């Protein structure tokens, strides 16, 4: 049974992620199916607009996509299943397709949207959130990094918010996403079905005109309050050159926010905090395609960290997923265990391609 549903109605291609028992976490087959649908519709003259939403156990909306299927990552890494490499190649190719998609594209981001869900939505022309939206890139908590183009879209948030979001995995609730420039419009969650239906109603208008009407409606100014986590010190502290500079500044700063932020960082993978900071800094200068090629290199090294004599069950990522999602003891044995113990020799190889340029799995992205 397919885990995505798709149909064309009145010139609009409609996609529903349909794996509600897993909060629509992306399987390899879902990525393959989504790529086929988006590619077919890109070239189909009967499709002028595309929209995507999630589903929950009771129906549609309420959950968008909780990311990639991390249990699959864990099991495939241990089994040395080549499908793991296939997953990231396919997913990042899809992310790039969506960023350069030539037709108006709307993402209805109701409910949970993390990781791979952000990769599906951030390339949309119209990114709609609701009061129920819970958005985050929490990968450093599982020994990973904010991939799916996170180096590109997080680095382009205001100031140095991208570094903060990448390292802490801070959750953005509703209007927080507007403040971070990761959404274009905020609506009441109860209005999502009506707004979705508006894309295919009133066929006296063209599909493109209906999309523009929706865009105008949801993009009206919303009252945006400053979230408690958005401290004025973010821009100065997270602009500092290195992770140790950031940690030292947080240790010396007074108040609740520095203490909470430092405590959060101390729980994350020390190695992947350093890697993620470097990723965001490099991503700020890259195109989306080049960022995804960089991230494809990094993710390979997450599961094949030969320069640290680690792979399979001993990799930082497999250990992080084990602690959070498999054994659920929430006690990952990070290695090295402290932020202070990471050296540049541990970080730099993540950014070295394991493939010659002409054999890179994403060599054809543009």
From TrEMBL:
Top-rank lineage group of the source organism: Bacteria
Signal peptide: none
UniProt keyword ATP-binding, yes or no: no
Alphabetical keyword list: Hydrolase
One Pfam family per UniProt: ECH_2
Domain Enoyl-CoA hydratase/isomerase: 12-351
Keyword Transport attached: no
InterPro entries recorded: ClpP/crotonase-like_dom_sf, ECH_dom, HIBYL-CoA-H
Protein name: Enoyl-CoA hydratase/isomerase family protein
Organism: SAR92 clade bacterium H455
Source species taxonomy: Bacteria, Pseudomonadati, Pseudomonadota, Gammaproteobacteria, Cellvibrionales
